[in-house]
Every structure is written in C-alpha cells, then in structure tokens.
Specification:
Elements lengths: L3 E4 L2 E4 L10 H5 L2 E9 L2 E2 L2 H15 L9 H12 L5 E8 L16 E8 L2 H10 L1 E7 L14 H11 L5 E5 L5 E4 L3 E5 L5 E3 L10 H12 L4 E3 L4 H5 L3 E6 L3 E8 L2 E2 L8 H14 L3
Parallel strand pairs: 7-8, 7-14, 11-12
Antiparallel strand pairs: 1-2, 1-6, 3-4, 3-5, 5-6, 8-9, 10-11, 10-13, 13-14, 14-15
Length: 285
Amino acid sequence: MSRIAFVNGQYCDYSDALIHVDDRGYQFADGVYEVFTIIDSCIIDFQPHLKRLFRSLSELKIVTPIKKSAYLYHIRNIIKKNMIVTGTVYLQVTRGVAKRDFKYPKDIKSSITIIGKVISEDTFYKDIYNGINVKTTKDLRWKRCDIKSLNLLPPVLAKQHAYENNSKEAWLIDDAGFITEGSSSTAWILDKNDVLRTSSLKNNILPGITRETFLKGLCKYKIKFKETSFNIKDIRSAKEAFITSATTFVTPVNMVDNIKIGNGKPGKFAPIFLDIYKKAIKSKI
C-alpha cells in the first residue's frame, strides 16, 4: 500500500508529495520541524511537542499554516492512513514560497508537510536494549540550537562522521571542551557518585521533549540528577551513559570514542531508567 502524506491541506500518495522549487525551506532551511514517536498507534508526548513547535515558529516569526487544534487531527489521520502501530510522524513547517531572496514578503503563506513511517517493534527497540557506540566531534552548529529549525547541516555531518566510525550517534564538543548534546539526542552520564548528569538548557541546547519527560520521571522516583556540563575526563570515570530522544527513548551508550563505559554493555541502571521513562509517558497518554 502506498504511504500517504499531507501537504498544504491535501492528502496524497507519498510519491506525489511535492513542494514548490521556491519553498524557502528547500532554499534557505527557513522552517521548523517536529518528530512524533508512535507506540501502539498512540502519539507520545504530543502536547509538549506541539508547544515546542509553536515556540520555534514564534522565534522565527513564522505564522502557523493551520489552526493549532488541527495538528492533532492531521497527525492522527496520517497514523490511520499509514496504519502505523509503531513508528514516527515527521511534521515540517516552512516560511513558504516566495521569489528567491534573503528577505521575505510580509504576506507569505507558510507551508506544511506531514509524513509517517512504520518501524517494526524489534527494530525500534534493538538499540534501546543493546546500547550504542558514540563518536565525539566538534560542535559547529549555529547559536540558536534551542529552536528546532531545519538548519541541520552540522548535525548531518556529525552523524555521518559517527556512522563512518562504527557509531550510531555523535556527541558534540564546544570550544570549552564540554559535551553540549548529541547530533539528534540529549547526552547523559551517570557519574562515579551515581548522579545522572546532562547539560543545562541554554541557547546552544535543544530543550528535548524526551529529556523533559525523563527528568519528571526521575523526580518522581527520587533519582539524583544534575543539569551540569561534562567533558571527556568525566566520561572516562562514568559508570554508565545514555542518550534520550523521541526515537531512542533512554538508550544506553556502551562506548564513547575508544572509552569503554563500564564493562562496555548496558549497565544495571539502563532498564531502570527505561522503565522510569515508559511509566512517565504512560501516565500522559
């Protein structure tokens, strides 16, 4: 069966889902996006994702192309039309179509695209249960990473660098030598004092929705954590390490560069933290 997409008010076959050549998202990365994880045909953390989407739109002064209440309706339709039980929904809003110029007209109409993807349950959970390797690289991103924009070339190059070095994710290092976050995830370590650490939110950190939900779960179960930066020295002494994102939940890290974390496989806290996150999202569905 053909996959169905939603493009600017119309549902169409995936192969017919086309955008205008002068769309500013295509020419300038002038837009924002969100990725929603679907489990048992339910949208995980929908409201926080929607809130972040509208914050990103506001920061870039892009007007939403549809009513706020319509987002849930169209995402649910994409889930239904694509028969997604486990998978993702990708939603993108760009400033719209205009003659190519760095400046844009005030009356420009924004564009929206929504597509869905089915992922087998085994594939979705494989890395979450088995863990991944991480490669570090220099953080070359722009200064407003708190906006979930389409400006993704530096993360693309970082992720490719990781894959070419037998790793699933890249951790980005700032000029001071600290890990900011992953190319598409939040970075965590469990330090030698059993304190879970991740960077505090600043303009160079995306406010991860999975991060937010996970932190609420940690508070509920009184797990010690600290929002503070860490570096390679801290990684060397870490007991465990993790990434979090919409598509990875809480995934253990087995190795960073040539540094083995613990015994090089998911540690005792990996299933505990995953269970805490699952309970946190279940309470919100």
